[in-house]
Amino acid sequence: MRAGKGFSGYLKTIDSGFLMLDSFMVHYLRAGTGGSPLILVHGGGMWLYSFRHNIPALSAHFPVVALDMPGYGYTLPLSARQRYGLEDTSEVLLQFMNRLGINRASFLGHSWGGGWVLHFAHRYPERVEKLVLVDSSGLDVRDVIE
Asked: What confidence category does residue 13 fall into, taking pLDDT thresholds of 50, 70 and 90?
């Protein structure tokens, strides 16, 4: 299923669609070819749109996949449940990769997305090639003012 009429103006300019998982219909896009894929995971309160300026540059070098995580963007739940934890986000990423036939990928996680991919990497290290964390949550580092 493709995103189309009634969606964001941005979606009219890209080739995005939906992938059916066990508990969600995940909105995503793919761009670029060759090599090992990079999966972009947005932060809380955002959706794949937050990577709109990065996707063209990154996809010139390797395949890029961006998805709207559960509770955000155009990803739709298949049940009435509205709260999702780290186990849920890890399961979504695993099913997403499996359904797209991605055995191993690099991940870029921004903000909460960084925490989500850290948890995923902890649970499924064999599925992760590299991690890029941008202003990530999930790190137990104290803020220090000197």
From this structure: confident
Contacts of 78 (CB under 8 A, 6+ apart): 22, 23, 24, 25
Q: Which of 29, 11, 33, 10 is nearest to 19 (CA)?
A: 29
Q: For the chain, what are the domain ranges?
A: 10-134
Q: How far is residue 51's CA from residue 40's CA, in Å, rounded to a whole number?
A: 8
Average pLDDT over residues 77-104: 92
The per-residue pLDDT for 132 is 96
- Amino acid identity, position 41: V
Return d(Cα 18, Cα 112) in angstroms, integer. 22
CB 46 within 8 A of CB 67: no
Q: Give domain 10-134's CATH superfamily.
A: Alpha/Beta hydrolase fold, catalytic domain (3.40.50.1820)
